[in-house]
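Board notes (copied after class):
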Amino acid sequence: MTLAGAPLWRKKTPPFDREQGAATRPALLLAWYDRHRRVLPWRAPKGARPDPYAVWLSEIMLQQTGVKTVGPYFQKFLARWPDVTALGSASREDVLRMWAGLGYYSRARNLHACAAAVVRDHGAVFPDTEEGLRRLPGIGPYTAAAIAAIAFGRATMPVDGNIERVVSRLFAVDEALPAAKPLIRKLATTLLGEASRRNESLRTGDEETRAGDIAQALMDLGSSICTPKKPACALCPLNDGCAGRSRGDQETFPRKERKKSGELRRGAAFVVTRGDELLLRSRPEKGLLGGMTEVPGSHWLVAQDDEAALAQAPALQHVRRWHRKIGVVDHVFTHFPLQLVVYVADVPLLTRAPKPMRWVPIASLKEEALPNVMRKVIAHGLGE
């Protein structure tokens, strides 16, 4: 069987041209986005001006956390603190309590510090450039680019995991992450089209300067079509110019170096009750879970045995013996897994809390800034 006089088995696929369709990609993305954009609590409706406060708040929450998880927290924060002035005037303890369960608690501390800085140093108005945003607490390169593009229409490209995947497939970036990040960002910026050569506001009336919408279009594309597994390439507005699809190995992108998992750390947690109260303390301000609430516990160390962990129990005059609960509490942090043995004790009603610990009614634990690992510990210790 032949085609144009040549056997089919001899026909070769022409080399892929990375510039193919480059001029039309921004328009294709925007046309697709205008029809299929996700409705998100923090996203301005089509034609409406984005609220920088909502954009900033959502971007901080979305760091290392999925959209479904963030949605309820975003709405809860917005109801409690509707603008940056309200949030900046709140106590950090209240912010930590409201954040409890969302994880990565340094974000909550930075969120409060940033709101206070915007109110104090900028008259409650967010800077509208990447440079100005980068000077604020808790705002790194990605977050500054996201706020600048989405809230202010600056011609910059924030590259999150979704955009990273779309771009690495679109251009068949063979270099592995994280080394490939600068190249991916450079290639992603080309998708801004003419806007990448002008640093104009979103409100110019020129469709090509819709930098924020282009960035969000790529995010939505990665979330709904260019998914990690089994991407729906037939529905993608950029499929004709996609190098990964042309090669047939799109699911292999982005290339990733194998991650090294941290060593297991072990420790003990002590659940002490006094009637209907629970003994709690606050963690040090700096470090993992800084400023959050916890039950007393040992250090979390690699190869720590139970005897060494138990020796770090709080000094309570009425506790002569700790009762060990059956089983352990497992938790995984970003850099290491943790395993905690839980010990329980009940003390008389007049027992004083060792400094700087405190007794808290069990019924009011929802109001405490307890991280997920501590909620697991308490549930295990109280037999819930």
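Comment from the instructor: Residues 265-381 form a domain with the Nucleoside Triphosphate Pyrophosphohydrolase fold (CATH 3.90.79.10). The two ends are 71 Å apart (CA to CA).
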